[in-house]
Write a structure and sequence with these properties.
TIM Barrel; two-stranded antiparallel sheet; 14 helices; 9 strands; binds coproporphyrinogen I
Length: 354
């Protein structure tokens, strides 16, 4: 059960880190940097330790998870670690028949299209993911003053994988269900919100210092549909972890028109992709929230001088913000040169040192 009071959350060593200060919109010694998908992907040391172990299997091995999560912290000197896992792990943990296919992504054996299919989604108990608790405890001990970010998929993005049966460009089955059977849609997202809330609580109780809700594909929706059919469910997730006092980050891709609502859903920090400058994003989100972002991940393939010029644009647009966490506008691309990431961390730290 979740018997620990919020004050027992064992993350006090990271309290004064630049990352948590920026999330709380307090003055920082330098702009903190981390990268979505910093673990795995581009690192040779990641490919080495992952060899011969399937993705989902590796997520259930606490020592391996700990090593992979620490790799980018050691190599790049980023200001936060992100727990190595995947958004479908809690679904797998409650018995949904799914796999992560290399080069494809999550694939679901029996897509959810009818009321009867909802039976696949029972509540998540902490014991279903005891390997997560174990890995996070190990990680927090190893990380010391570096904060650990926990994460989960948001109800809409999880629903997209479950309804489509796998990655989708247009989300057509998902939208067909959303418009065609609003009642079933609402029940589906409600169940996913309960699972996601439980999964985030497990991570916070084990010592995560912040959480990010990935609604990666929600930019496929127009604002009215987001407000009525998705936002109430994401808001329940944020509300369910509000009492812990850890920063809650909310991120999606192509969400320029949704940023205000994504803040209203209950985030402390709103993640922004590269399509909208941070000063404009701040106007849309409004006061009282920090922003995270938003360098185009493809810029890491450009020569160093161009990379620095693009980082300058991000930092200049962020100059008037109350709280800024430097990040990419989406995840690190698999063929990224790790040295470019290290150089970028150094550059942002140097340029923003106060
Ligand atoms: O830093 C990190 O890499 C942490 C680990 C991490 C995270 C944060 C992984 C490992 N997955 C995720 C989150 C995740 N998974 C998201 C949200 C973030 C984002 O938008 O990038 C999403 C949408 C997924 C779903 C997913 N899992 C995809 C995308 C498929 C699609 O729809 O286009 C893929 C390819 C995966 C598999 C996966 N997850 C993680 C890794 C290292 C891999 C590759 C596994 C392999 O190659 O075997």
């Amino acid at each position: 059960g979740f018997e620990h009071p919020a004050s027992a959350v064992p993350n006090s060593a990271a309290r004064d880190s630049a990352f948590l200060k920026a999330c709380r919109r307090e003055p920082v010694p330098h702009t903190p940097v981390w990268f979505m998908r910093q673990a795995g992907r581009s690192l040779p040391e990641y490919r080495e330790v992952r060899r011969g172990t399937a993705m989902l299997e590796s997520c259930m091995m606490p020592e391996l998870v700990t090593e992979i999560t620490l790799q980018p912290v050691r190599r790049h000197g980023v200001d936060a670690a992100i727990y190595f896992s995947d958004i479908v792990v809690p679904l797998k943990a409650i018995g949904v028949d799914l796999d992560i296919k290399p080069g494809v992504g999550p694939v679901v054996a029996h897509p959810i299209r009818s009321r009867a299919d909802l039976a696949q989604l029972r509540a998540l108990e902490p014991d279903d993911v005891s390997y997560v608790t174990e890995a996070i405890r190990m990680l927090v001990a190893e990380l010391g003053a570096t904060p650990l970010i926990g994460f989960a998929g948001a109800p809409f993005t999880l629903a997209s994988y479950l309804v489509e049966g796998g990655p989708s460009r247009n989300h057509e089955h998902t939208k067909a269900l959303m418009y065609g059977d609003p009642q079933l849609w609402s029940e589906l997202l409600d169940r996913l919100a309960v699972i996601t809330s439980a999964f985030l609580k497990v991570q916070i109780e084990a010592g995560a210092s912040a959480v990010q809700l990935f609604d990666s594909w929600v930019g496929a929706l127009k604002p009215a549909d987001y407000r009525e059919r998705v936002m109430p469910h994401s808001a329940k997730v944020f509300e369910s972890v509000a009492g812990y006092g850890v920063p809650r980050i909310h991120f999606g891709v192509g969400t320029g028109e949704l940023l205000g609502l994504m803040g209203e859903a209950g985030a402390d920090v709103v993640g922004v992709d590269w399509r909208i400058p941070l000063d404009e994003a701040a106007r849309r989100v409004g006061p009282g929230r920090a922003l995270q972002g938003n360098l185009d991940p493809a810029v890491l393939f450009a020569p160093r001088e161009a990379l620095r010029a693009q980082a300058d644009q991000v930092l200049d647009a962020a100059a008037g913000l109350e709280g800024h966490v430097f990040n990419l506008g989406h995840g690190v691309l698999p063929d990224t040169d790790p040295a470019a990431l290290t150089a970028l961390v150094e550059y942002v730290h140097e340029r923003t040192a106060r």
